[in-house]
Design goal:
- By secondary structure, the chain is α/β, with parallel strands linked by helices.
- It contains 13 helices and 13 strands.
- Strands 6-4-1-11-12-13 form a 6-stranded parallel sheet.
- Strand 12, helix 11 and strand 13 form a beta-alpha-beta unit.
- The longest helix has 23 residues.
- It starts with a strand and ends with a helix.
Length: about 350
Amino acid sequence: MALFIFGAGATRGCSFVDPAKDPCLLPLDADFFTHLQRVQNPKHQLLIENVVRDVVEVFGQNFEVTMETVFSTLEHTVRMLRTTGENRGFRRGDLARKRDRLKQAIAVVLEDSLTERGDSGASSRRPKRCKHHEVVVRKCIRRQDDIISFNYDCVLDYALKDYGSRKWNPRYGYGLGTRGSALKGYTAWQPKTPALSMQTVHFYKLHGSLHFNEVQRRVVHLKQRPYTRQAGDMQFTILPPESQKAYDKGIFSELWRAAGRAIHRAKHVVVVGYSLPPTDLHSTALLRTSVRNEGLRSLVIVNPDRQARQRIRAVMQRGLSPETRVLSFDYLHEFIAVERRVWRV
C-alpha cells in the first residue's frame, strides 16, 4: 500500500503556474497577504481592502505576518477578551468579523490563482488543470492507495475526476458519508468509470476543502464549482490555520481517524510539497504516532526545502528501518519522471 501526502507546495508547483502571466499564485502561509493583494478580479477588491485594513489594525503598518499568525492572534485575542473584558480597543464581535473576512479571503486567492482568465481578464469558472497531477493519477497512484491532503484547493480532485477511472469513486473515497454522516453531490466529481467501493483510492482532506459544504450537521455537499462566488459569502468547510484546530469535531474526527489508519498501514510514503511547519503540532502528532514501527519500505520526499525534508524524516523516523529506501526530489515534475519501481520497491 502507498500513501501520498500533499501540501501547499504541490499546488504551487503545478504545471500551469506562471507568475509572468498570472502574478497571483496559490499562496503559502508566509506569502498569503502578498498574493491576496495581487488578485485582479475587481469584484473582490472591497473585501481585500477590508482584510488588509483589519491586519493593519491588529499588527500596525508595514506588517510582516503569516496567515497562521493572524488567524491564531484573532483566536487568542477573542479568548483573552472573555477573561479581561472588552475594554482595550477590540470587541469580540469585531474580531469575529475580521476572522470571517480573512476566511473568505482564502477563497478569493484560490479563485484567482486556480481558474482560467475570462475575456475581461477576471477569473472565470473554468478551473486550471495540472499536467503533473494528471501523471500522478495516471502513473503513480494505484487502486486502494491512500492520499492525505492538507490543501483547501481541488487541483487533485479534478485530476482524479478526469483521469481516475476505475481507481476513484468519490462516494466512498473521501471518507465521508460514514458513522452517521451523509455525502451529497458526489456524482459531479466521479470519473467516467467510477471504481468499485472496495477498490477506490481513499482521499482524506484533513483541513477541509473549498468544495466541502456542510449544509447541516453531518451532511456534506460536494459543490460542483468550488471556486465560484456569485452572491454573498462563499460557503465551504475548512479548518483555518489556527493553533487550536477542531480536528476532533464533526466530520473532521472521521477524516483524521481514517488518516491515522492509512498512515499505519502504509508501506510506501510519498510526501509532496508538505513542509510540516513546526507550529502544526496536530499533523506532527498524527504522523509520529500513526506510522508503523519500522514498517516503511520507502519514504520519498518531494520538496526543495532542505530543512523541510529533515523535519519529515525526523517525524517519520519511527517507521524507518535499515532496509527503508529514502529518496528526495526537489520538484514534482522530477518525481513523476522516474519509474514507479524506483521508489515502490
